[in-house]
Amino acid sequence: MNRRHLLAFAGVAVLALTAGCFGPGAISDEQLDQEPAEPYAWDSGRDVHIAIQTDSSFRAVYNVSGESIELFRRDGFGGRNPLNVRAVRYRYPNGTVVSGAEFEARGGEIDRSRETVTVTFPDGGEGGKLAFTAGATPKRFSLPVFVEGSYEVVLPPNRRIDIPVFGSVSPRGSSAETIDGQTHIRWEEVTSRGITVQYYLQRDIPIFGAIAAVSIVIGLGGAYYYKRQIDRLRELREEMGLDVEVEEKDDGPPPGMR
Questions:
Q1: Nearest one of 128, 29, 23, 133 to 69, comparing CA atoms
Q2: Residuewise pLDDT in 10s, the chain (258 residues)
Q3: CATH code of the domain covering residue 126
Q4: Nearest-angstrom CA–CA distance, 246 and 240
């Protein structure tokens, strides 16, 4: 094996390690046991509750009923990438909450592969709830639907979705309410492939308005300048006699044809 092949093999090995494709153990106990930024909303009354944070991450709580759940994001090529989960918690039907490491110690499993994070529940998951924190894109939240049912997404303070172009929600059929400065978006039943919420910061609107106003003024000024240049060019042509029409004298038909 020559040097080029060795370098190629080493590159593939590094990518494999960083992608977590060497199986279980890719998520450390320290990462699993991190404290969430704020307490999880265990009693929201929704099958799924998602709170988007100001640090480009989100906290999620899922009602679970199967033996396992797969957590991932879709990429732009039809593939899947595992969520970078942390601060994992599991609440048993009796209300007992355990951290991620304790969850595994009690028979649960949290396995990271190249495509997903698979969480397997020790009691079949019936009646339990899974909570975790993961990264999010600023001003545009998008996530596959892992669990069908009722949803609630809470935006960070002073974020809105009211103005089209700047704000939008998918799938349709949602309702929105502002509580203590935060927008709560709710669906009674979500069965789609994913949910997407595009939102904006309230203070962005005056900035966008000012930029639009300046753009309009610049555009009008440019149009006026262009028109003045055209008028000036026409005046110069007239002064030089280039646009003067010469009236031809009609002397009738040629001689011999009269």
A1: 128
A2: 454 444 444 444 444 444 433 444 468 999 999 999 999 999 999 999 999 999 989 999 999 988 999 999 998 788 999 999 999 999 999 999 999 999 999 999 999 999 999 999 987 778 899 999 999 999 999 999 999 999 999 999 999 999 988 999 999 999 999 999 999 999 999 999 999 999 999 766 665 555 655 566 677 667 767 777 787 777 777 777 665 554 555 566 666 655
A3: 2.60.40
A4: 14
Residues 170, 60 within the same domain: yes
Cβ 147 vs Cβ 46: under 8 Å: no
- State how far the Cα of 50 lies from the Cα of 41, in Å rounded to an integer: 8
60 vs 84, 117, 209, 224, 240, CA distance in Å? 13, 15, 34, 55, 77
Partners of 80 in the β-ladder:
74
48-52/149-154 β-pairing:
parallel
CA distance 50 to 59: 6
Cα separation, 254 vs 207, in Å, equals 76
Same structural domain for residues 89 and 34?
Answer: yes
Residue 32, in any domain of the structure: yes
**Tokens of residue 171, six digits:** 């799938």
Q: Model pTM?
A: 0.72
User: What is the span of the domain harbouring residue 172?
Assistant: 21-201
